[in-house]
Amino acid sequence: MKRTGVFYHDICGKEAYSSLAMGVEDGFLAIKNEGFFSRTGVTYFESRPAVEREIARIHTPDWIEEVKRTQWWRVSLYSIGGVLQATEKVIRGEIDNALVIAGVGGHHAHRDSAWGGCYFSVTGLAIPHAREILGARRFAIVDTDTHHADGVRHIFKDDDDVLHICFCGADYSWDDTPGSLVENKTKLCFPHGTSDETEIENVMREVPDRVREFKPELLFWICGMDTHQDSYGTRALTSKCYPKLAEIIKDTADRACGGRLIVKTCCNAPPHATAYILPRIVDCLGEVKRYAGE
Ligand SMILES: [Zn+2]
Ligand SMILES: [Zn+2]
After folding, report:
1. I want to staple 3 with a disulfide (CB 3.0 to 4.6 A). Which of 95, 180, 257, 265 is the partner?
2. Which CATH architecture has domain 4-286?
3. 203 C-alpha to ligand 1 centroid (Å)
C-alpha cells in the first residue's frame, strides 16, 4: 500500500464555484464514508489557506486585488493551499501521492486575468513553490478536462522544464492562435476520446512514454470531470472511465518519478459521478484494492 494524502477543506465544498463544481462535497464525503481514513495508508489533511505571497509568484498585484473583492477569494485560497501542501508533503517524501479536492478551477487563469470558474492557477502555483522552497525543477502536467488549459499553457509557454500535455481537441480549444495547440516538444494538445475506450486509448498513447522520457520530479494530473456524460463538456465518458485513467496516470508516475503524483480535481460533474469516482481514484492511488474485480 502507498501513503496517500487527501487534501480538502470544508470551505472548498461549501463555497465551491457552483455552476462548475457540482459534486465537490459529495466526492469528499464518499471517500470518508467508505472508510478510507481508517485501516489504510490513506490520510486526510485539512487544506491550509495559501498566503498572498505564494499567489504573487505567478499573479499580478492588480489581479490579486480584483479577486479579493469577489466571493471566490476564500475558496481560492483553500484550493491553492491544498495543492501547495500536497506538493510539500510529496516532494519531502512524507506521503507518496495525493488527491486534492478544490472548490474552483485553475487552468483558465492567466497571470492577470481568468475565466470559466478559475481565478488563480491552482496547480500552476505549485511549480514556483516547489522550485523556491523544495529545490525541485522539472514537472509534468497532464490535463484531461474537456477544455484547453489556456492559462497554464500561457504561464509556462517558455519553460522547457514543464511538460504540459492537454487533452482538449480542436472543438474545445477556444484558442484560435494558429499553431497554438502544439507549440513544441513540451507543450502539446491532443483530442479527447468520444467514448471510454477511445479516451483510455488516447491517454495511453500520448502520456506514459512522453512523461517517462521527460523525467519529471513530480507529475500533476488535472482531472477535469466535465468530460462525464452527465456534465457539460464532451459528455463522452461514464464514471467507470476515470478510475481507469487514474491507473494509467499512477502507473506512469510510478515508472517516471518514483510515484510522485498529485491529482487535482474541482469535481465538475454531478454528485452521483464524483461519489463514484473519487473513492476509486483514492483506492488506486493508495493501492487499497477495495474495488478490485469491478
Ligand atoms: Zn472544462
Ligand atoms: Zn489544449
Report:
1. 95
2. 3-Layer(aba) Sandwich (3.40)
3. 17
